[in-house]
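$ fold --in a.seq
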Amino acid sequence: MITKKQFDFLLAFSEQSTSGSKYSDSRIDAAQKYIFAHSEWEDIKPVNGNRECYTIKQYGKKLGEKILFWHEFLLNWPTDINAKFEALKETGGKVMADSVIKASIQHILTGDNANKCAVDNGCFMGSVKSALAKIDKFDKAAKDYDKL
């Protein structure tokens, strides 16, 4: 089960990872009810035909599901480098080319220069650096999350 501290961590993590405006207070409140207080969640109903309630509830549920996804994702973040790249595919983010993944893994396992690994695998060093930064980001997030 997720705690309030974990919820707050994942909310901040999600806001840092997405572009656009921050989540509204009403959306966050609805997401908290969706996760922590299901009876209150069920009590969210339109008043005098106000359709805004449906929108808040819909977006709150979507945010709640996202928070729960990241909760499971960080709890189960693998230690094996190959498994880490497989796990990144689950996020629904931009797909990394196989050559970039191979070059990144080569760099991590051998300690070879990132540019050499990129050339060896037919990709750009910038792509390898970006892939390595993503792995580092999730390594750090999983470690920090584990402390909560």
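$ fold --in b.seq
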Amino acid sequence: FAVLLTIPMAWGQASQSSKIPRMADERPDFQGIWDHPYVSDMSLDRQDQKGAGPLPFSAAGADNFKNYDPAKFDYPGHCLPFGMMRSVNVGGYPIQIMQNAKYLAFLFEQSTWFHVVYIDGRGHPAEVEPTWFGHSIGKFDGDTLTLDTVGFNGKTRLDTIGHPHSDKMHLVQTFNYTDPNHLAYEVTIDDPVMYTKPWKNQRVFTRMKPGEELI
């Protein structure tokens, strides 16, 4: 089940850029509590090409997905971390963003996971210790925030249906205001082990009403 969302303007452009929330340094202020679509199957509504068919699996990726049986083992059922993409994709659980000049953090209502992104200009370390959510750095290009994440442990799935990724996955996510209460979100999956080429999803995050908080 996927939700197709129509965005009435070009991606990466804010229609009211002067009115969007801003930090003291004039960067966009993404702080808030955000509702987001439930994306159980990332192979639907792909934006890497118009009318895209099945995901560009490698032989290893196709075999992995074909043999995945959550009835036998699904790691969240054993209280293991969802990982970055499955946390973003899961439905019914909003995400809070906290931000200052050095850090941006995602607080996931789902299982109270959190993830810190460095936005102070540093790069990835020469040797990244593999983790469930990876190591993320962010940079601003005008009003667009781009997050670059590597260093996954390869133990999670991208979505509920179980699309795989390896520890070699390189994840790129972009955030951009379309108006003060909506964020255009795009994610690119680049995993040379499981897929033959990068592929994308797009969706919209909606700011929750004043007074609504994470549970």
